[in-house]
Amino acid sequence: MASDATLDELKSMNINYYPTLVAFSILLYDYCLTFVAEVERCWGVRRLNLGLGLFYLNRYLTLFGHVPIMLEFFWSTSNPNKIEVIVTICNRFTNIKPS
């Protein structure tokens, strides 16, 4: 009878990497498929309204919100403070100041 896998064994199998990679790949695929329609229908609008603003917020916040997650999962470093380095990098691209 096989024993249960330990936490170290699961980490060595990279079991969390693959579902994250699949989800991000599907997100990018969907973005690429709908980009032409977005340009035709949304970029030609002269005035930003509530619906268009919510569309942009939903589309791009979702896309760029995955960047820190992808950095955390796939960026290999020997630095033990990996999360602090990722937060520092992400803060460079935003105007959010750490408290």
In short:
By secondary structure, the chain is mainly α. 67% of the residues lie in helices and 0% in strands.
- SSE series: HHHHH
Give the strand tally. Answer: 0
N-to-C terminal Cα separation, in Å? 51 Å
Name the average pLDDT.
Answer: 77
The fraction of residues assigned to DSSP E strands is under 5%
Number of helices: 5
Shape: elongated
Q: Give the biggest sheet.
A: none
Low-confidence stretches: none
Q: Which structural category do the helix and sheet elements fall into?
A: mainly alpha
Helix content: 55-70%
From the alpha-carbon coordinates, what is the Rg to the nearest angstrom?
19 Å
The number of distinct structural domains comes to: 1
Protein described:
The chain has 99 residues and is mostly helical. It has one domain. 67% of the residues lie in helices and 0% in strands. The protein has five helices and no strands. The longest helix is centred in the N-terminal third of the chain and has 25 residues. It is elongated and about 60 Å long. The mean pLDDT is 77.
